[in-house]
Automatic annotation (TrEMBL):
It holds the Pfam family Abhydrolase_1. The active site is at 114 (nucleophile), 267, 295 (proton donor). One of its GO terms (cellular component) is cytoplasm. Gene3D superfamilies: alpha/beta hydrolase. Residues 36-295 form the AB hydrolase-1 domain. It is found in: Cytoplasm. This is Proline iminopeptidase. InterPro entries: AB_hydrolase_1 (IPR000073), AB_hydrolase_fold (IPR029058), Peptidase_S33 (IPR002410), Pro_iminopeptidase (IPR005944). GO terms for molecular function: aminopeptidase activity. GO terms for biological process: proteolysis. It is an enzyme of class 3 (hydrolase). PANTHER family: PROLINE IMINOPEPTIDASE.
Length: 316
């Protein structure tokens, strides 16, 4: 059962050297154990704040960040395509550090969902001394094979939707690279159409979850375009985690950081092989495969919530 709804007690922006403004908000107990929520996407944003209900407000100082280029952060990527040159994993990690320093947080628990789990892992590998625990849900690591899986590997399950996705692309073009090209086209009409086509594919492949339904992000054309612009930018660039910098190759370095990996068996967008491999490479991690859930789900969310609450209680 989720915790009661709550509103932030503080919010603001951190100004970054390249001109970006990164939105942050805090809720829960100002004296509680710091916990950082990292949303999905890339480009998903914090939304209406339902994420806050995953944390016990008496135990946690809850921090949420709209990652650069989306949500309440400025500028949006689709509104200023030149800002994409400042959209790299290094930029995102530096933003998190800037927010941590601004808030005076020493160390925090990381809770990442989907793309947010990739970001949580990348941050922990760069700043292990700043992380108390990691609880990831719908686990991804940004590997190229994962990106090819979600764009083409599941085509046999959704042949009609995949044919529509591929329709505007060249025959010899990798799907993710083709959409990154279309979404930075000089023509606004081309970009809008590509954003809608990409969104239709996103809606299709997350549809197998037991409670799956498109969120409000998918209802607004501007949000659809921005989400697609950021997702394809990062995925076409291997999430800026190439080769020896990949999360899976560095996973043994996470030893000493307690971690819980929660994943739905029916998650066709990211197969259970991802958290299974990560768990095997990360000494001391715990893997929870939820048979009835897809890309997230009620049971998965409850397991993640319980893990975070348990970590907070054990530290008291």
């Amino acid at each position: 059962m989720q915790h009661p709804p709550l509103e932030p007690f503080a919010a603001g922006f951190v100004e970054r050297p390249d001109g970006a403004r990164v939105y942050w908000e805090t809720s829960g107990n100002p004296r509680g154990r710091p916990a950082l929520y990292l949303h999905g996407g890339p480009g998903g944003g914090l939304g209406a704040g339902g994420y806050r209900r995953r944390f016990d407000p008496d135990l946690h100082l809850i921090v949420g960040i709209d990652q650069r280029g989306c949500g309440r952060s400025e500028p949006w990527a689709a509104d200023d395509l030149s800002s994409l040159r400042h959209q790299t994993m290094d930029d995102l990690l530096a933003d998190i550090e800037a927010v941590r320093t601004h808030l005076g947080v020493d160390r925090w628990l990381l809770h990442g969902v989907s793309w947010g789990s990739t970001l949580a892992l990348a941050y922990a590998l760069e700043h292990p001394d700043r992380v108390t625990e990691i609880v990831n849900l719908a686990v991804t690591t940004g590997a190229r094979w994962e990106i090819d899986w979600i764009t083409d590997g599941i085509a046999p399950v959704f042949p009609e939707a995949h044919a529509r996705l591929r329709a505007p692309l060249r025959d010899d073009e990798r799907t993710i690279e083709g959409y990154a090209r279309l979404l930075t086209d000089d023509s606004a009409a081309v970009r809008r159409r590509a954003g809608d086509d990409w969104d239709a594919w996103e809606v299709a492949h997350v549809s197998l979850g037991p409670l799956a339904k498109p969120g409000p992000l998918h209802a607004e054309p501007r949000h659809r375009l921005n989400f697609a612009t950021l997702a394809t930018h990062y995925w076409a660039n291997d999430c800026f985690l190439p080769g020896t910098a990949s999360i899976m190759s560095r996973a043994p370095e996470l030893e000493g950081i307690p971690g819980v990996l929660v994943h739905g068996r029916r998650d066709i967008s990211g197969p259970s092989l991802i958290p299974w491999r990560l768990h095997r490479a990360w000494p001391g991690s715990r893997l929870e495969i939820v048979e009835e859930d897809g890309h997230g789900g009620p049971r998965s969310a409850q397991i993640a919530q319980d893990a975070m609450d348990d970590f907070a209680r054990s530290a008291r």
